[in-house]
Write a structure and sequence with these properties.
The chain has 167 residues and is mainly beta. It folds into 2 domains: 12-67, no CATH class; 73-167, no CATH class. It contains 1 helix and 11 strands, in the order E-E-E-E-E-E-E-E-E-E-E-H. The protein has one helix at residues 153-157; strands at 16-20, 28-31, 34-36, 51-56, 64-72, 76-82, 88-94, 103-110, 113-125, 131-140, 145-149. The strands form 2 sheets. A 9-stranded antiparallel beta sheet has the order 1-4-5-6-7-8-9-10-11, with no helix packed on it. The longest helix is centred in the last third of the chain and has 5 residues, at 153-157. The protein is extended, with a radius of gyration of 23 Å.
Length: 167
């Protein structure tokens, strides 16, 4: 082999694989010992997945499955994630307006507790019409709270210099 010879890549061993159930035109095995089937026609919208199946090299248990669902309301969108251990993450985000897509409420729970952790975030418009975090309030299952209020240089000294969260 000389310096001018083309290199060769060989397939490696799978150590971790994630399979999303995107709608596709493909039909057949997808890994993790799962199979997908083809759609009957063209996709009518952007592909969205509702589950992710994970497997690792040397697994001797069934694949881990995480499920996702989205509920859309006029002013908010909620994404629910259920993890393989049964824990549940609910994220509520703004829909439309200046804060579109920004999460303002997160709740983590599991089958043994309806509330393990909850975080409320508020947003405001900062420099260059960009949203910035105004405050974050977190509550744990013992009803212990922390509250953080963010200040930006412009808010404190009233100048027109660019905002920063460093005082």
């Amino acid at each position: 082999m000389t310096i001018d010879d083309q290199g060769k890549l060989n397939p490696g061993e799978m150590t971790r694989e994630r399979i999303y159930n995107y709608p596709t035109q493909y039909s057949g095995p997808t890994g993790c010992n799962t199979t997908t089937s083809a759609n009957s026609g063209a996709l009518s919208d952007v592909p969205k997945y509702t589950s992710m199946t994970e497997c690792w090299a040397g697994m001797d248990v069934p694949p881990a499955v995480t499920t996702y669902s989205i509920q859309s309301q006029p002013l908010a969108q909620t994404v629910d994630t259920i993890r393989p251990d049964g824990s549940h993450l609910t994220q509520v985000m703004h829909k439309g307006g200046d804060f579109d897509g920004l999460v303002y409420n997160e709740i983590i729970s599991d089958p043994s507790s309806p509330l393990l952790y909850q975080v409320f975030s508020t947003w405001e418009m900062g420099d260059y019409d960009s949203p910035v975090v105004k405050s974050v309030e977190a509550t744990n299952k013992l009803d212990q709270n922390t509250f953080t209020l963010y200040g930006y240089l412009k808010d404190i000294i009233g100048s027109d210099s660019p905002a920063t969260n460093q005082l």
